[in-house]
Design goal:
The chain is an alpha+beta fold. 27% of the residues lie in helices and 32% in strands. Strands 1, 2, 3, 4, 5, 6, 8 and 10 form an 8-stranded mixed β-sheet that branches. Strands 7-9 form a two-stranded antiparallel sheet.
C-alpha cells in the first residue's frame, strides 16, 4: 500500500515553512520531471516544499538536498518546490490509483506560445504525484507522464483557462519496483484511464480553489 504524505515544517528565514513528506515503506520505481531526483529509477522518499513567491535561488536542487538532510532522509529521493501552501494539497483516487496535486495558477502559459524565448521565473507551479499499484514497463511508465499531462490540460480547460500549465510544473509517477509489468500507460489503458480521471479531478479541484482565492504560502504567512 502506498504511504500517505505527512505534513511537516522546516524553519527558514525565521518562518515555519510547510512541506509534504512521503517516506516509502520500500523503494519504488519512479519517473519524474523534478529538479531533484528527476529521470527514471528507484526512489525512497519524496518531498513537496512550499517556498515564498519571491523565491529566486539559482540552485533549487541543492536547496532540496539541504531540506532532505534536515529531515534525515537518505538514499535517492525526489524533491519538488511550489509557491502554493502545501496545506492545500488535493488528493483523488480511483481503482487503487492515488493522485496528489498542489495547484498554483498565478502564471499560466501556453506551451507553444508564439515568439516566446524565455520566462520570468514565478514559483506558482502545478506539482502532481501519482501512485499506480502495479509495476509498469519502461515504456508504460514514461507514457503515464504524457497521459497525466493530457489530463492536467483537460482540467485547465474545464476551469476556463487557455493554458497548458505553468512554466515550472512537475509530474512524478510512482509504482512498485518489481512484479509483472503492465505494458501500457495511455489514457485508455488499464491504469492510464483511472489515473487520467484522478489527475483531472485533483487539478480541477485544486485549481478552482487557487483561482478563487489566489492563495500562496507567502499570502498566508504575511496575513498572520
Amino acid at each position: 500500500m502506498f504511504a500517505e504524505p505527512s505534513l511537516t515544517h522546516r524553519k527558514e528565514d525565521g518562518a515555519e515553512v510547510p512541506l509534504l513528506l512521503w517516506r516509502f515503506p520500500e523503494p519504488v520505481l519512479a519517473v519524474s520531471t523534478a529538479v531533484l531526483g528527476g529521470g527514471v529509477g528507484t526512489r525512497e522518499w519524496l518531498i513537496n516544499a512550499s517556498v515564498p513567491m519571491s523565491y529566486a535561488r539559482p540552485d533549487p536542487s541543492a536547496h532540496l538536498t539541504e531540506l532532505a538532510a534536515q529531515l534525515n532522509l537518505s538514499g535517492p529521493g525526489i524533491g519538488l518546490l511550489t509557491g502554493v501552501d502545501v496545506h492545500d494539497v488535493v488528493s483523488a483516487s480511483e481503482d487503487g490509483v492515488h493522485v496528489y496535486a498542489t495547484v498554483g495558477l498565478g502564471a499560466p502559459i501556453r506551451a507553444a506560445e508564439p515568439g516566446v524565448t524565455g520566462f520570468a521565473h514565478r514559483p506558482g507551479t502545478i506539482n502532481i504525484v501519482v501512485w499506480i499499484p502495479q509495476h509498469l514497463s519502461a515504456g508504460a511508465l514514461i507514457n503515464t507522464v504524457a497521459t497525466a499531462t493530457e489530463a492536467k490540460v483537460q482540467a485547465l480547460a474545464e476551469l476556463g483557462l487557455i493554458a497548458t500549465g505553468t512554466a515550472t510544473d512537475a509530474i512524478c509517477v510512482l509504482c512498485p519496483a518489481a512484479g509483472e509489468p503492465a505494458a501500457y500507460g495511455g489514457p485508455r489503458s488499464h491504469w492510464g484511464a483511472p489515473m487520467s480521471r484522478a489527475v483531472f479531478a485533483a487539478v480541477r479541484s485544486g485549481g478552482a480553489t487557487n483561482l478563487a482565492t489566489g492563495r500562496s504560502w507567502s499570502d498566508r504567512h504575511h496575513a498572520r
